[in-house]
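Q: Got a minute? One more chain.
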Amino acid sequence: MFDFSVVTNNAHLIWEGLLITLYYTVITIAAGLLIGLIVGLMQLSSSRILALLGRIYVEFFRNIPLLVILLWVYFALPIFLGINITKGWAGFIGLSCYVASFYAEILRAGIQSIDPGQTDAATA
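A: Always. Here it is, folded:
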């Protein structure tokens, strides 16, 4: 039989975990949307180099599992850059970069799906 007293006696931990999860969700969405907008616009740029860099960013972060990205940001990034990074910052950076790649594709596809006549009408 499952002992629910473990859950009820530690309810404050559940609420604390929920608040931390919501905090990371909000800041990751905000940062990821900002980065994703920049990368999505890079992909739509007339400059072939910018478009290629945007495509490389998206393909890199979308094709690597999130857990691998988080582990690399937490363990490898400080070694390569010679800096100390907290687990909170590592989570924020890793999640934001991962989410940004998906937002970049969403925004790029959304912009490209607009009919050219609609764009001309808006310009006029």
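A: The chain has a mean pLDDT of 93.
Q: Perfect, thanks.
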